[in-house]
């Protein structure tokens, strides 16, 4: 009996020790860490693990194929990780920018050192600071990213972004795109980043659409050429986004920023079936979504032969298209004319780090309430898709990417009292609501 009691005591002590160990381990992974997912998944890949896997892969014989070997521990770990994320909603798109650079990957800072742009009125301009930001502590943003002044070429950063996108249940990223060897006014060419982006997007079951920017010389001829280039180079990749139309065609979808800079006669040559040089019914046919800014653009978009409308701007009231009270009538116009309607929602807007005089367009985030109001307004209009402005347009303060409090000579805004992942959490909630509503609308 004494031996039994002794065994019982030993067993009890072991159980107490086990409980204590579990509690200690839990304490090592706090929920509030900016590097933890709101759904319990680590949001950033283990670089050392990745390097080890790369070394192991480099030592494998070239003739061994993936299908010839059992799943690696890394594959099983990824599958387990993906199961913890909510399913991607391919009707929720986020505008995504690859124009950031730093010395490690790009030899210099790119875009983080953005100029403070002068006001067009010389007298007004004299009252505001001008010059270039000086990263990494002083960047061209009113918020500071949790990943720091990162490079869009860093695989670690892109994979972290994919995990954040999946945490938010976003199914499609709409990458800002300039043709090869062309760039925006403040950056460098970025088309060569697309293969890496597609590869990591596929890993996380995310699709990639293209947001064609107003590059120098954009006209109906260069548009045909560049759409052809995108489809021929990237169209066969499994992460390349395609959408099945009402006619049963499975087509790529292109957002066209500042589409109004080309007149409807030019667009007609590209987009109308009746034109001899049209892209329609060729291997490069696609769904083309025009930017709606002014009310008069509705008729121009229809005349030009576009397939749909998006509104882009995250500032409610900034333009006719971005004014949320107009979305019901825009949706009605789209329904009457067989157009796709894609309202754009955002968490707020502030660009005074690069346009220090533009305070009138600032929209306070109100701890997420502005974003939720925008999402609610979009759903009330029963859209075909919802687009988010943006995942990471830091210059204009529209990002839902994780931001952290930052103390330096520059005073930054942050997401407090909420966690760095608050806007991912809000997006995930509304992506699920949108999915449920879409199913009801189709019944």
Automatic annotation (TrEMBL):
Residues 44-74 have a biased composition (Basic and acidic residues). The keyword Iron does not apply. It is a single-pass type II membrane protein. Pfam families: Glyco_hydro_99. Residues 32-78 are annotated as: Disordered. GO terms for molecular function: glycoprotein endo-alpha-1,2-mannosidase activity. The keyword Hydrolase applies. It catalyses: N-{alpha-Glc-(1->3)-alpha-Man-(1->2)-alpha-Man-(1->2)-alpha-Man-(1->3)-[alpha-Man-(1->2)-alpha-Man-(1->3)-[alpha-Man-(1->2)-alpha-Man-(1->6)]-alpha-Man-(1->6)]-beta-Man-(1->4)-beta-GlcNAc-(1->4)-beta-GlcNAc}-L-asparaginyl-[protein] + H2O = alpha-D-glucosyl-(1->3)-D-mannopyranose + N(4)-{alpha-D-Man-(1->2)-alpha-D-Man-(1->3)-[alpha-D-Man-(1->2)-alpha-D-Man-(1->3)-[alpha-D-Man-(1->2)-alpha-D-Man-(1->6)]-alpha-D-Man-(1->6)]-beta-D-Man-(1->4)-beta-D-GlaNAc-(1->4)-beta-D-GlcNAc}-L-asparaginyl-[protein] (N-glucan mannose isomer 8A1,2,3B1,2). InterPro entries: Glyco_Hydrolase_99. PANTHER family: ENDO-ALPHA-1,2-MANNOSIDASE (PTHR13572), GLYCOPROTEIN ENDO-ALPHA-1,2-MANNOSIDASE (PTHR13572:SF1). Belongs to the glycosyl hydrolase 99 family. This is Glycoprotein endo-alpha-1,2-mannosidase. The lineage of its organism: Eukaryota, Metazoa, Chordata, Craniata, Vertebrata.
